[in-house]
Amino acid sequence: MTQPLLITAAICGAELTRADTPWLPLSPEELAAEAIRCYHVGARMVHLHVREPDGRPSQRADLFGQAMALIRAEVPMIVQFSTGGAVGMPVEVRADAVKLKPDMATLTTGTVNFGDDVFANPMPSVRAIAKRLREFGVRPEIECFDTGMVDAALRLAKEGLLELPAHFDFVLGVPGGMGATTAHLDFIRTLIPADSTWSVAGIGRFELPLAQHAVTVGGHVRVGLEDNIFLSKGVLAQGTAPLVQAVAQMAQQAGRPLATPQQARELLRV
Questions:
Q1: Its pTM surpasses 0.85
Q2: For 61-85, how does the pLDDT look when each residue is reduced to its tens digit (9 = 90+)?
Q3: Domains and CATH numbers, the chain
Q4: Neighbours of 254 (CB within 10 A)
Q5: Cβ neighbours around 92 below 10 Å, total
Q6: d(CA 60, CA 200)
Q7: 154-181 per-position pLDDT tens digit
Q8: Of 225, 236, 232, 230, which Cα lies nearest the Cα of 201?
Q9: What is the distance, to the nearest Å, from the Cα of residue 227 to the centroid of all Cα atoms in its chain?
Q10: Cα dihedral across residues 162, 164, 165, 168: positive or negative
């Protein structure tokens, strides 16, 4: 295994609260500090959500900008904004911060049941976000909760709204989405175009087992409190950095090197 491993740190998300875990970063300063901590244990990209001062999910460009500036001042980390926001946010709000030109931003290419809610991504909205990413020169990460979202991304490429090869992130285990099994991961990764790259984000207790599988088969990994708050059964992770460190240890045991900052940028074409 010689291909370097890219670890993405998903440090906050839009759903968690401090009642779920006291280690959740919320302010731009806390988000930046956690991202930097993750960088130093092996993460090369941060998947960034932001919060209002009272902890509510937000897509305010000024909050994204503050966190990004603090991160970039300290480490050469790839900064990826979420355009998913929180369930129910209108598309124009979700994509506003792209104007700040982060290195990457997510592009979810379909609608999915999200527990008892619905994460709505009708194709006109998907196209609008894709066009905005192209307008500001921001490279997309195609976020897939099911196989049909790969097909939708390929349609966008045919329409000229998406460049291939691309980077795909498979989010597996959301109630209502594709199950978090190695069989599902092994299937969905066969659907992406040659020379595209992929990572997996397992939800909850599936996070680290799917990370282990990705390390073994040559994929990449997203971990963090957004997807899972436990380091082991009943043991809260004290932030996202311990989860990054656990994946780095998996890579070391597998004989797979971690990507350098430059290798990560070459891998993702940013």
A1: yes
A2: 999 999 999 999 999 999 999 999 8
A3: 7-268 (3.20.20.70)
A4: 13
A5: 12
A6: 27
A7: 999 999 999 999 999 999 999 999 999 9
A8: 225
A9: 9
A10: positive
